[in-house]
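Quick one - first record:
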Amino acid sequence: MIKLPYYAALASLVLIPACALKASSASSGNPPHVLSSDWQTLDTAPYSGKRDDISFSSPTHGWYGTGKGDLYATTDGGDNWDLVASRPGTFIRAVGFISNTSGYIGNVGTDYYPGVTDETPLYRTDDGGINWTPVDLGDTTIKGVCAIDILKTDRIYQGVKQPRTVIHAAGRVGGPTGILRSVDGGANWTVIDMTDHAGMILDVKFFSENVGMVFASSLEADENHGLILSTQDGGKNWKEVYRGSRKGELIWKASFPTRQTGYATVQSYDQTREQQLLIKTTDGGRNWSEIPLTLNAKARQFGIGFIDEKRGWVGTMAGGFYTDDGGASFQSVPIAKAANKFKIVKTELGADIYAIGTQVQRLKLFANGNGGLK
């Protein structure tokens, strides 16, 4: 199995003034163009590496973690960040918050990154991240977590519609693979052993309590083909819906702006290959097609985030890329190296797009009066 290197990027933090976009009064039905110059680098504590995940429970309340076990929080939409907890030996790989106080912190686990001594894969907090409680998984657990997916949905119980929070935490980079699953907001958990299905799991996405996908690599120890698996029964059975034809690839992160349209990054470890590829589905993940991103051997891919079917961003080791035509073409944008996760947060004025990697950045989009965003 391929051992993924941890790329440290020493970059100074520069605060770039945000350029507010003016609301458009145009009546055209075409989505307005997103100005790439409006990415703002937020003022955060220096970190000599790639931060991996960021989560927001509201337009104001957000959290991100680091590989040193530091958890930071904001209560003003990212303008200011405070260190709320520090747990040396923990590698915070994923964060997912349900409310302004309650959320989950995923730890990558031991035997992969140097200096990681914490064997607890998942913690819960109910005070905004200050105190962490290990999630009770009984006698069965997984090695580590690389992604957390939180789905707020409804169910009909005795003829009454009730809110329901479904949580999945999956991992991990380097293997072994498994999924932690709760369908009652974290009160009870089950563990799904995925070691017979995938070599690594890097991302997870559920559309309902039972229908979901994992984004992964295949089992071959010396080859690692990119892999996507789908379930229709809450993880009891899995079907392969994508397998890459090239060795040395992983499916790193995914983004579904609609139920039918989705994109995922194809991370290649062939250092000689210039052509970087994404994959795209337009039928809800049943079929995937490959689309070119850029000709650059240094543009190893990480995070991806789409705000609608056509407009989205990709993070790579060579910086960021943006498309406004559904991946038919891409342009370079000033997103810092190794943006590992994009988070789209709806606001009263439109949406805030966050990119986290070697820096924490934000792009503000404003409603244009036509049901779209500018």
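second record:
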Amino acid sequence: MDASLLSQPEPWRQLLALLLAATVVMGSPGPATISVTAIGAAFGLRDSLRYTGGIVSGTIAVLLAVATGVMAVLGSMPKLAPLLVVASAAYILYLAFKIATAPPLAARAAEASRPTWLAGFLLAVANPKAYVAIAAVFAGASSRKGDVELGLWTKLTVLAVMIVVIHAVWLVAGAAFARFLRRPVASRIINLVFAATLLLTTVLAVYG
């Protein structure tokens, strides 16, 4: 966006609207955000940073796919969509099982399996909500009245920053539960709740 446009009120109103839409639509509970919270609770803040980095990278990849029209091309292939849904569901089921069966933090060995960057990236690109939410926010950022419109790179930059901030907030919220997970009973209950919530948000994202 040209610097001269920043002095005009319309771009600022569109920017604020974009931030608000991103916060409400992309920041609401979904498979990616809930998984970040669940991983943060089950494994603690430090051991969840790689996974969260993968989620952020994968979600930004989805943003780029939506912005460049890649998803529109894939969406035109009717036989591909069911395969993507099945693959997404299978992976999210696996992740929910891993969260539900995670041992208490106090009993976890140093070499215990920790969530990886690749695991986060795969869930992000398999997350059905991400495509719908990002497409809605991205399309809504366009001007409908012929006014000055936010540039493509401005939209991409703002939404990429919001992706980082949103998932960081969900991670910190999940890590706040970690102190309760040193007790076996509390650990099992909280992990089961997060796993069930992850499955529920996935079902709502697909069929809601």
